[in-house]
Design a protein that fits this description.
Two copies of one chain form a homodimer. The first copy, chain A, is an alpha+beta fold. Chain A has two domains: 79 residues, Arc Repressor Mutant, subunit A (Orthogonal Bundle), CATH 1.10.10.10; 166 residues, Chorismate lyase. Chain A is 27% helix and 32% strand. In chain A, strands 4-5-6-9-8-7 form a six-stranded antiparallel beta sheet. In chain A, strand 1 and strand 2 form a beta hairpin. In chain A, helix 2 packs across helix 4 and helix 3 packs across helix 4. The first copy, chain A, is elongated and about 70 Å long. The interface between A and B is large, with 46 and 46 residues. Chain A binds a DNA duplex through helix 4. Chains A, B: This is GntR family transcriptional regulator. Chains A, B: InterPro entries: Bact_HTH_transcr_reg, Chorismate_lyase_/UTRA_dom_sf, Tscrpt_reg_HTH_GntR, UTRA, WH-like_DNA-bd_sf, WH_DNA-bd_sf. Chains A, B: Keywords: DNA-binding, Transcription, Transcription regulation.
DNA sequence: CTTGCCCACTCGTCTATACGAGTATGCGTG
DNA sequence: CACGCATACTCGTATAGACGAGTGGGCAAG
C-alpha cells in the first residue's frame, strides 16, 4: 500500500463539516477510486489517529458511517476491510414457469448448480400453525395453515429465508406436508391435487433487517433485506399458497418482464 | 409517559451482551410493544444515563444501533423519536398498461391524486449526453443519449429520483426532448413515432443509499433505497428506453403479476 | 399584550484514557 | 521440525469531561 498521505488528504479546519465526516468522505472517495480494493484492509484506527491527529473515537465514528453505508466491515482483531460485492443471484420472472417444474430438482438447486455455486437448504421445518393476520387475509380468511420454513445457502453463506403457508384443507395429509415435497416442489404437487396454477402475485419491499434476520442470514451491517411476499392463485381464483421470503439484498437482483398492453 | 423503570428494565451485569446492546434491546422491545408510539419522543440521553447508570456515550451508542435499523431518528435540540412508518406508494405491474396512458396526466400525478396526496415533480433536466457503459449496453451500443431527469415528491417529501435514457436517433427533435413530453408521457410519444411498445424488463436491487442519494431524497438514516432499472422494448425487439430509478424504500411497495405458464 | 431575550434542555462533536478480547507472528522450547 | 506461548497489533466496550448548536418556554421590558 502507498503511504497514507499520498492517498488521504488533510482536514479542512475552516469547513463546517464535522471532522469525522470529512475523514469518512476521504475514505469513501479512496474506495470509490479503487485506491483500496475489494477485500483490502483499510488503515488501522491507530494509523488514522496518527495521520489526522484526532482521537480514536473520531476515527471510529468515521468507520461507523462507512459501515452503515455497507462499504466496509470490521473484523475484531484483524482490521477494517472494504466489503466485497458478493456475486448476485438473479431471479427471473419466469422462474415458476411450468417447464422449469417438470424436472426433479428444486429451482434453487438447479440455478445454483448452473451458476457454479454450491447450494444448500437447511432449517427445514414443516408444521401446522395458526395463521397470522396478514397470511390469513391473503389466503382468504383461513385460521390454521401448514407452514414450510427453509433457509437457502450458497457456498455456505445464507442468502434467503422463506416460509410457505398453505390452507390445511389443501395440504394436510399430502406430500406437501412432508419435509421433502418431491420433484418439482409444492407447486407440482398442488397441480397434481387439481389446483391448476393460474398466476402469482408478488409484493416487494426493502428495509433494514431485524436483529433475528441479521442472525439468520448472517448479515453484515449496512446490508438491507428484500422482503418478497408471493401469493399463488389457481384457475378458480383461489389463493392456494403464500410464500414469505426475506433475502439478503446484496445477494439478489430481481428481474421481471411486463407486457406493454 | 409512564415512569422509566416501569417501561425499561435493568441491565444484566452477568450477561456477555454489551451494555449498549442491552439498552438498545430494551428500547427496541418497548417500541415493538407500543410502549413508545410512532412519532413519540424517547427518553432523552440524560434520562437514560440516569436510569441505567452508564455514561452518555454508551446511551448514544444504543441510539445509533436503533437509528441504523431505521427504528428511530434524532432531531437536534428536540430529542429522539420513533420513526413513523410513512404511507407507502404501491406500484402495480400494470402501471404502464396502454389504457393508463390514454389520459392526460402522468401516472405519478394520477395515482397520487387518487391516494389523496399532493404530488410534485421537480429538478427537471433534459439534455443530450454520453451514455455510460451500462446504459449503452442496454440500449444496444449507442454512444450518445437523451437523458431526462426528474424527482418526484409526495406532500413535499421526495420519494423517487428517475432518469430516462433514449437513443438520440429516436428522441432528438421530438417532443420527447422537450421538458414537457405531453399527455401520456414519453411512452405515448414513442408509440406515435412508430415504436409500438411490446414489453418492459425491470431489474430490482436494494442497497444503502450513497451520500448524494441521501441528500436528493432527504433520507433518514436506516432507510435503504430500491434501485429499479426498466428497459422498454418495441415490437421489433429494439430497446427504446432505459429508465433508472432510485426510490426511498420506506415509501414503496412494488407489486407484480406473473403468469404461471 | 407583544416583543425579544435568556436559559434550560436537547442532541452533535471531540478529546483522553482505560481495559478487554480476538488475531497473527515469531521465537523459544521440547 | 513441531508445538505452544508470549507479544504486538487489531477492534470492542466503556468512562468522564468539555464545548457547540438547535429548540422552546418563560420572563422581563417595552
Amino acid at each position: 500500500m502507498a503511504s497514507l498521505p499520498s492517498i488521504l488528504g488533510g482536514l479542512d479546519p475552516t469547513s463546517d463539516r464535522a471532522v469525522f465526516r470529512q475523514i469518512a468522505d476521504q475514505l469513501r472517495e479512496a474506495i470509490d477510486r479503487g485506491r483500496f480494493k475489494e477485500g483490502e484492509k483499510l488503515p488501522s484506527e491507530a494509523e488514522l489517529v496518527e495521520h489526522y491527529g484526532v482521537s480514536r473515537m473520531t476515527v471510529r465514528n468515521s468507520f461507523s458511517i462507512l459501515q452503515g453505508e455497507g462499504l466496509v466491515h470490521a473484523e475484531h482483531g484483524r482490521g477494517v476491510f472494504v466489503r466485497p460485492r458478493p456475486p448476485v443471484r438473479r431471479l427471473a420472472s419466469d422462474r415458476f414457469a411450468r417447464r422449469h417444474r417438470e424436472q426433479g430438482k428444486s429451482a434453487f438447486i438447479v440455478e445454483a448448480d448452473a451458476a457454479g455455486s454450491h447450494p444448500t437448504v437447511d432449517s427445514l421445518e414443516v408444521k401446522e400453525e395458526k395463521a397470522g393476520q396478514d397470511i390469513s387475509t391473503r389466503l382468504g380468511s383461513v385460521r390454521r395453515v401448514l407452514a414450510r420454513r427453509r433457509r437457502y445457502l450458497l457456498d455456505g453463506r445464507p442468502v434467503e429465508f422463506a416460509t410457505s403457508y398453505l390452507p390445511l384443507d389443501i395440504a394436510r395429509g399430502t406430500q406437501i406436508a412432508e419435509p421433502n415435497p418431491g420433484p418439482g416442489g409444492i407447486y407440482a404437487r398442488l397441480e397434481e391435487l387439481g389446483h391448476q396454477l393460474d398466476h402469482f402475485e408478488e409484493e416487494i419491499r426493502a428495509r433494514m433487517p431485524s436483529p433475528s434476520e441479521v442472525k439468520t442470514l448472517q448479515l453484515a451491517s449496512g446490508v438491507p433485506v428484500i422482503h418478497l411476499i408471493r401469493t399463488a392463485f389457481d384457475t378458480s381464483g383461489r389463493a392456494v399458497e403464500v410464500c414469505d421470503t426475506v433475502m439478503a439484498a446484496d445477494a439478489y437482483v430481481l428481474s421481471y418482464q411486463l407486457p406493454a398492453t
